[in-house]
Design a protein that fits this description.
Layout lengths: L21 H11 L3 E3 L6 E3 L1 H20 L3 E3 L4 E3 H4 L3 H7 L4 E6 L2 E9 L4 H11 L8 E10 L13 E11 L2 H21 L6 E4 L11 E8 L5 E11 L1 H6 L2 E3 L5 E3 L1 E8 L1 H10 L16 E5 L7 H11 L5 E3 L6 H10 L4 E5 L1 H6 L1 E6 L5 E5 L3 H26 L1 E3 L3 H10 L3 E6 L3 H11 L2 E6 L18 E6 L3
Parallel strand pairs: 3-7, 15-16, 15-17, 20-21
Antiparallel strand pairs: 1-2, 4-6, 5-6, 7-8, 8-14, 9-10, 9-22, 10-11, 11-14, 12-13, 17-18, 18-19, 21-23, 22-23
Helix pairs in contact: 2-6
């Protein structure tokens, strides 16, 4: 229920302040902003129209960029025969604990169990082996939009569910360098969309061997920091080398008519990005959406709409703003209720128009992030709206970047890292020797994981912060969703 829209006062009841209980605040927003609902299957969610519309906007941005770089969309079955999954040992071991199996079809027991895809590497590899014969068949640049199933023990809407939506790219190349460049160029696309559209600043780097994708030669990632100082792996790309090709017999004849194995990459982002947007930009009044991916960028609220001419005038403004994603709320709800409703749903810009405004040739624009009201001449409406949305988009990015920078620390010991994460969570930079034993010790002592080895390296110490040995890398550590 709505309260009076008094400045500085919380607009919506039954949403927990993030400072009181961040997890409950997140759940409240998911429910109250009507993004998702729980289904009858534990760990699975229903995407409500508001939530799915955000995914459609994100998907459209990625899809256009993939196609502009020569990638083609395909679709593969959701079922993987057990024998096919077993072909790549490291891969199957990495996913075994999360696999869901189909054992019966109708009332008959299957002769071979079918895995419901947790990811589709094996399916693509089988297909590549059948269609690639010559260097003329390369590269193969495929992308798939689908859902996958991973039987997670602990779930949270969007961030970690047993079934989720994503894209997974799978490519095959003639050389090792081409596969690496593919993985890095896709990471550039992920970075561009996250920063320029979702307003989420990212750290770019390479995963440690412990944290890399099962079966990959190298994994690259973009890492984001949430309001509460927890990290979020927003996207990953993988260089497979020729490991999968050897396991599946994916070979081609080169220009010298010699038989070679292909080199592959794989990459993916998922609907956890919606969770990232909530936890990066949301506030105690609800969701805050970056204008570039907001399904509705502007909502028009008529004031005293019962008076003659107000609704017709508001409708005309909607037509004028048709270059934006705009909605006119002409329902019989009170303006105060509408203000709270669209604040909760994160609509970036509110336009108020009433009889006095019409007479004065003006309207009121209200930004969602700071609730600042500006009186705008109707003669300059389109330009004013465009500028307000641009300013809001940039302000969200700047605020998120400032949060990350203020929560990024340096540690010279595991004890110091633990103390920092216990008192004010964030990202911690520390030098590392590269040994798995030290990485395991950090996880055991501080319940922290390596987020990535940043591409932009800094020397924040002389020795490994864990064992005191020679340091090979500066690593960013943290606790993450």
């Amino acid at each position: 229920m709505a309260k009076e829209n008094t400045k500085g006062q919380k607009n919506v009841e039954a949403i927990t302040d993030m400072e009181v209980d961040f997890a409950q605040w997140y759940t409240d927003i998911v429910k109250k902003a009507e993004l998702a609902d729980y289904s009858g299957v534990r760990g699975c969610i229903i995407f409500r129209p508001n939530g799915y519309a955000i995914w459609e906007q994100i998907k459209a941005e990625f899809d256009a960029k993939f196609k502009a770089t020569g990638h083609e969309n395909v679709y593969f079955p959701m079922f993987i025969p057990e024998s096919l999954l077993q072909k790549e040992k490291d891969h199957v071991e990495g996913f075994a604990p999360e696999v869901a199996w189909v054992t019966h079809g109708g009332d008959e027991e299957l002769t071979e169990k079918l895995c419901i895809r947790p990811t589709s590497e094996t399916l693509f590899c089988e297909h590549f082996a059948s269609i690639i014969q010559s260097h003329r068949d390369l590269p193969k640049l495929y992308n798939q939009w689908c859902s996958v199933v991973r039987w997670e023990k602990s779930t949270r809407p969007f961030l970690r569910t047993r079934e989720f939506l994503w894209q997974e790219g799978h490519t095959a190349h003639a050389t090792a360098d081409e596969a690496v460049q593919e993985a890095l160029s896709i990471l550039d696309i992920y970075t561009e969309v996250c920063e320029n559209y979702l307003a989420m600043p990212v750290l770019r780097g390479k995963k440690t061997d412990k944290e890399k994708f099962a079966g990959a030669k190298s994994t690259y990632a973009i890492e984001c920091l949430m309001h509460d100082g927890q990290g979020l792996q927003a996207g990953t790309t993988h260089d497979f080398g020729d490991g999968f090709a050897q396991a599946f017999g994916i070979q081609y004849t080169d220009k010298e008519n010699k038989l070679q194995y292909v080199h592959q990459s794989s990459w993916g982002v998922s609907t956890r990005l919606i969770g990232g947007v909530i936890m990066t930009h949301g506030d105690n009044n609800g969701l805050v959406l970056p204008p570039k991916i907001a399904p509705t960028q502007i909502v028009i609220i008529p004031i005293a709409q019962h008076k003659e001419g107000v609704l017709d005038f508001a409708s005309g403004l909607k037509d004028r703003l048709s270059n934006f994603r705009v909605k006119l709320d002409s329902s019989d709800r009170s303006p105060g209720w509408k203000f709270s409703e669209y604040e909760m749903k994160g609509v970036p810009l509110r336009l108020e128009i009433g009889p006095k405004d019409i007479e004065a040739g003006q309207c009121v624009l209200v930004r969602r992030d700071n609730r600042e009201k500006v009186v705008v001449s109707l003669d300059n409406l389109e330009a004013a709206v465009a500028q307000a949305l641009e300013d809001l988009q940039q302000a969200l990015f700047d605020k998120a970047l400032a949060n990350r920078e203020s929560r990024t620390y340096i540690a010279k010991s595991v004890e110091e890292l633990k103390q920092q994460l216990d008192t004010r969570p964030g990202f911690v930079k520390a030098m590392w020797c590269g040994e798995l034993s030290c990485e395991d010790k950090v996880k055991e002592m501080a319940t922290a994981t390596s987020r990535c080895i940043p591409f932009e390296q800094e020397k924040v110490g002389e020795t490994c912060f864990c064992c005191g040995g020679d340091a090979k890398h500066m690593v960013v550590w943290g606790r993450a969703y």
